[in-house]
Structures are given as structure tokens and as C-alpha cells.
Amino acid sequence: MRADESGSGSTPRRPILLANLGSPASTAVKDVRAYLREFLMDERVLDVPYLLRKFIVEARILPKRSRESAHAYRRVWWSEGSPLIVLSRRVERLLRERVAAPLSLAMRYGEPSVETALDELIPSGTAPPAELFLLPLYPHYAMSSYETVVARVRRALARRAPGARLLVQRPFYDDPAYIAALVERSRPFLEESYDHLLFSYHGLPERHLRKSDPTGRHCLASPDCCRVESPAHATCYRHQVLRTTELFVESAGIEPGRWSVAFQSRLGRDPWLRPYTDKELTRLAREGVRRLVVICPAFVADCLETLEEIGLRGQDAFLAAGGEELRLIPCLNDHPRWIETLAGFCRA
Q: What domains appear along the chain, each with residue ranges and CATH number?
């Protein structure tokens, strides 16, 4: 399940670059503001013309959201640092023990940067590799996650090693090993008594799906577009998360009526993928769900969106609406089955 974007052929020691979203350097407001600025000024995240984007970010979003996000990060920050960075470093270390090739970790925003990781993989004064394998730690395709990190690495690699070919792991949303790792990670939570399982995926503006649709006429054009075969599915986030859900439910043996899908982390007033997780948490509680289990398969490492948005704020909302217990299934993190899955991608 890998796409060679620049040619074919391989070498046993091809460098491997893991890439994830990123995190602020600390919970200080200034560091959170710097991180949010870099993130939101990405044209694939806030996809409006530069001057308008600059105005929205600097005048509308950062003044308030920097303080709010800093407070949220403080609620989940670990003694070792950002949960996302700490967990990603653990994965990097464990993979280095299993993969006989140079391997490094980069974040799309913040540190370790793409340039820092490439400097580690391609030290100054050494011959550049013929190929570099990029493994985006995103199961599903989205222009604001998978696409932007691939574009970022491609630009940086062209400067660092102009002759090197970039090979990229395709989104692994339906890979049997990924699904098996999710099910195994979730099993202890599903073996306990619960009323409902909610799949909460990161949300996207609907316009992002339309922009990513190579046909220009399939995504969101009909209620069942994700079930009608189309070339658009290769870059359709909604189709891919629904497929992940279907495969998980089938593998784990979840009964019909005991699970549903929602989308979290929306920003702004434009239409985003529905239903919204915060609304679903309230609805489920009010309709009699007392013991809720939540899984977030779009994230492979626990972060602000899982630990704080779902584990703290989401739990508070669910309990306030009449629910009795919300249990959040941890992300894949450094689970042994997940490490073996990643090692398999690296060796393929």
C-alpha cells in the first residue's frame, strides 16, 4: 500500500521519515500562538487567499484561541512534554529497533521540523540517498493533514537532496493490519459492559472534500456518494473514515444499532462534516445511553483532540446531559500491534 511518486526501485537502506501534525513547544500562550499561527496560515488548512487568511488568523482567531488552547494544553500536558510528541518519540524509538534503515521523525508544524529530520537522515557532506520513504501518520486522506505534509516534505527534500525520489505511504484506512491493531487496542474496552460505541473522527469543512474530488462532481453530490464507486474515493476523507468504521465494526463484531459516527474539532461557521461530536454526545445521553465508549481512529497518537476535547470536555458534556460514564479508548500510541504494523509499512 505505497505510492511511488517519483519513480521506481528501492535500496535496502532507504531512509524513512515518519511525519505527524505537531504540537506547541510548551503550554505558554506565546508558544501556543506561534504554533497556531503556523498551522492556520497553511493554505491547505485555511484555504482562502493569503491576505484574507492573514486577517482571519491574526485578528479573529489568535487573540482568543491562543489563550483558550494554552489552557486546554495545560490540562493534558505530561511531565515529559506534549503527549503527541512524547508518544511519537516512543514510536520512533521502537521502530528503530525493528527496521534496518535510517529513520527519523518530523512534525508538519513545530519541532522536530521537516528540515531537522532531513538533516538527521541526510547528514551534510554525505551522498544523498536515491530514495526517501515518507510515512505520514494519518490513516485517511485530507488536504489539511496528509496532503500538506507530503507537499511540505517534497519541497524540503528537493532543496536538501534534489536527485532523491520521494516514495509515500498511501492512506492506510482499510489496511488489514491497521484495522487489526485498532481492534486489538479496543478489545479490553469493548469486553466491558457498554451501551454505545461512538467513532469520533476529526472534522473537515465540506469544501475540502469538494476541492479534493478529482472528478469535481462526486463528493457530497448525493446522500450515498461514499457508497457509490468512484475515483474520488482515493482522496475522499469521508469515504475513507466510513470504510474504516465498517471494517472495524465487522472485525470486532459490533452489533447494529450500538455504534455511530461523528466528527469533532470544527472551526468557524462554514458547514463541516456532520454529525458533530459535541452534539452527538448530548443527543446520545438524552436518548438513554448511559455507558458510552468513544474511539478516535483518525488519530494514531493521543493529543489535545483526544485527551482534552473528548476525554475531558466531551465527558463533561455527556455527563451533564444525563450520561453516567464515558470511556475513551486510547489511540494506537505505542501499542505492540501498531508498531508491527508500521514496521511492515517500512519494510514493504
A: 2-172 (3.40.50.1400), 176-328 (3.40.50.1400)
